[in-house]
Amino acid sequence: MVGEEPGLYGAPAAGPPGWPRNTNQPALQRFLAGPTSRLTELARAVHIFAEFIRGFRALHFVGPCVTVFGSARFPDGHRYYDLARETARGLAHSGFTVVTGGGPGVMEAANRGAKEAGGFTVGCNIELPEEQKPNPYLDVMIEFRHFFVRKVMLVKYSYAFVALPGGLGTMDEIFETLTLIQTRKILDFPVVLLGSEYWQPLVDLLRSRMVVEGTIGREDLDLLHLTDSPDEAVRCVNDGAQRTFARRPPPQRPRWLLGEFGRRAA
Q: Could you give the CA distance from residue 146 to residue 40 in angstroms, rounded to a whole number?
């Protein structure tokens, strides 16, 4: 990375061939543990800026995108793996680039389904101690150190989120996105929850506790679309994207001086 000093983030941890580095590094833990010297904080700011620029350059011409979230722990043949794969086929047929975290499980299934339908796929990986091996169905793979940089990229270049059953990371993405929609930082952005048996208790909690207590409005529940149907999920994404297409200007033409030729234009 530009301006990187040896030891600022520590040496890459050992792992199986093909795995990205993990975050079991003391320097990354110190970053979130309070202030350090001014020079160190400046160096970290430069690293973060460079990570943003790297993401902008990698993703500028891969859209329009739909991001699919879900657990890395569902193997091939699991019902949620198959559901993600079928949904991604429909998204690819609709002309969307399918973006995931780039790992196994639901992420692999979505990238796989898109490739089977002749679509384009992107993996926005994150350096983690485990469950992060890139899947083999990626046209573009970019790796991030910081969750907040990765999440900005996923929202900036996506027209919708489709969330299958997942853990804390999936919950984090869902609720951060809902907050952005609720506060109108992003508009006409569908959030589809696939797998009603898994997600219904969460929706019931929102309705029976948060709405009743007044911490959210009843209309906020309309931000979520709960379904078991891949076709319905794709329709919901298409409906929201049609409204968004009209507001987003097309990207500029790739420039060879910036190393942008050869990437898929929107």
A: 17
**Whole-number Å distance between alpha carbons of 122 and 67:** 9
Please list the rounded mean pLDDT of every run of 10 residues in the chain (266 residues): 35 40 59 81 91 89 90 95 98 95 94 96 80 84 89 91 95 93 88 96 95 93 94 94 65 62 43
Query: Taking CA 258 as the corner, what is the angle to CA 155 and CA 124, rounded to the nearest 5 degrees?
Result: 30
CATH 3.40.50.450 maps onto the chain at 62-246
Domain 62-246 has CATH 3.40.50.450: yes
pLDDT number for residue 18: 44
Report the residue count for the chain. 266
Q: For residue 98, which of 52, 139, 51, 153 has the smallest C-alpha distance?
A: 139
Helices (H) and strands (E) in the chain, counts: 9, 7
- What do you get for the CA distance between the two ends of the chain, in Å? 27
Q: d(Cα 19, Cα 8) in Å, to the nearest integer?
A: 21
Distances, alpha carbon 248 to alpha carbons 158, 159, 163, 188, 253, in Å = 11, 10, 24, 12, 15
Q: Order of strands, edge to edge, in the sheet holding 97-100?
A: 140-144, 121-126, 97-100, 65-69, 158-163, 191-194, 224-227
Q: What is the largest CA-CA distance in the chain?
A: 56
How open is the CA angle 57-59-61, to the nearest 5 degrees? 90
Q: How far apart are CA 206 and CA 228, in angstroms?
A: 19
Q: Return d(Cα 108, Cα 72) in angstroms, integer.
A: 8
Q: Which is it for strands 191-194 and 97-100: parallel, antiparallel or unpaired?
A: unpaired
